[in-house]
Write a structure and sequence with these properties.
4 strands, globular
Length: about 120
């Protein structure tokens, strides 16, 4: 996901305002990113670990604590392995939008963080 040097990839949830905002910012700058509906096509374990590391936020920073399933699974004090397993089993727990470029990877909350990755 996003290996080509010029490719911009966004992990997108069309129901999320921040995700729509980041996508709009990219398109306003003439960038048509690869849009990955990560809920329908979740990342594999290695990709999720790489994005968590590359984004600088880690798994804890990439997990959506507001989701009901976060509380249902008791993830508040979970270790990284438990968080990773939960995020793979329940992709709704993956925070969005994530923008991946050759210049870096960011969790774009607020959406303007995507601009840090553009030339």
């Amino acid at each position: 996901m996003g290996d080509n040097k010029d490719t911009v990839t966004i992990w997108h949830n069309p129901r999320c305002g921040n995700s729509r905002g980041a996508l709009q910012l990219l398109r306003e700058r003439g960038i048509e990113p690869v849009v990955v509906d990560y809920l329908a096509n979740p990342p594999d374990r290695a990709t999720l670990l790489k994005v968590a590391a590359d984004s600088g936020v880690g798994l804890r920073g990439l997990v959506r604590e507001k989701e009901a399933v976060f509380a249902e699974l008791g993830l508040a004090d979970a270790d990284d392995d438990t968080l990773l397993d939960a995020m793979l089993a329940h992709p709704i727990l993956i925070n969005r939008p994530v923008v991946i470029t050759s210049r870096g990877t960011r969790l774009c909350r607020p959406p303007e963080k995507a601009l840090e990755l553009l030339d």
